[in-house]
């Protein structure tokens, strides 16, 4: 229900005692921040978030999971005197979406099959895979399984090494998108073991 998807953070004493609040917000879910002050006769408010400015005493933000630590600033300006003061809070973004090796194939080995699972995805909702920031295109060797929630390699090549992430659609009213925590597929150790005496032949294509 909607009230489960909203968290209210209040930045107090914006006339202004320099209070900052360190809190957690959830990737993919809406969070509302409120700036208050004891301005007389009143204040206008400006927010600064990730290089963008927003006006008003409230700011609603849905993190996409790309940033784990975010700085949020609110500045109050007295409408009569023009004096201003700002307050800053550091937000830690919590994400429930991650990329992990499949339990059935936990260790990457060159020339062997391997799978990555997108944990935290929702059945029937879109999942997109990325390697080093680029969309992964399935082919005869790389397959998307289980409604795209699993990325399966029939056999691993050195070129498969890289940083993998998945983008999921959340099961909320906004159907917001979230980028997962990533997984670094490092094949350098496997390659060294291979070439020091293992079988270097590739599977038949």
Automatic annotation (TrEMBL):
Residues 1-27 form the signal peptide. Residues 101-180 form the Ig-like domain. It comes from Salvelinus namaycush. The keyword Nucleus does not apply. Keywords: Disulfide bond, Glycoprotein, Immunoglobulin domain, Signal. The gene is LOC120048671. InterPro entries: Ig-like_dom (IPR007110), Ig-like_dom_sf (IPR036179), Ig-like_fold (IPR013783), Ig_I-set (IPR013098), Ig_sub (IPR003599), IgSF_CEA-related (IPR052598). It comes from the Eukaryota. This is Carcinoembryonic antigen-related cell adhesion molecule 20-like isoform X2.
């Amino acid at each position: 229900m909607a009230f489960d998807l909203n968290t209210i953070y209040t930045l107090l004493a914006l006339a202004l005692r320099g209070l900052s609040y360190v809190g957690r917000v959830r990737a993919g879910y809406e969070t509302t921040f409120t700036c208050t002050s004891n301005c007389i006769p009143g204040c206008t408010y400006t927010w600064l978030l990730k290089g963008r400015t927003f006006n008003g005493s409230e700011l609603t933000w849905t993190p996409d999971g790309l940033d784990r630590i975010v700085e949020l600033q609110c500045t109050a300006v007295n409408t009569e005197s023009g004096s201003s003061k700002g307050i800053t809070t550091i937000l830690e973004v919590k994400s429930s979406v991650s990329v992990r090796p499949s339990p059935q194939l936990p260790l990457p080995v060159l020339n062997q099959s391997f799978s990555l699972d997108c944990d935290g995805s929702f059945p029937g909702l879109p999942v997109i895979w990325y390697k080093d920031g680029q969309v992964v295109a399935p082919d005869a060797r790389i397959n998307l399984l289980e409604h795209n929630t699993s990325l399966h390699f029939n056999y691993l090549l050195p070129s498969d090494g890289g940083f993998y992430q998945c983008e999921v659609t959340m099961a909320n009213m906004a159907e917001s998108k979230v980028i997962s925590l990533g997984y670094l597929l490092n094949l350098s150790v496997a390659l060294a073991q291979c070439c020091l005496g293992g079988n270097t032949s590739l599977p038949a294509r």
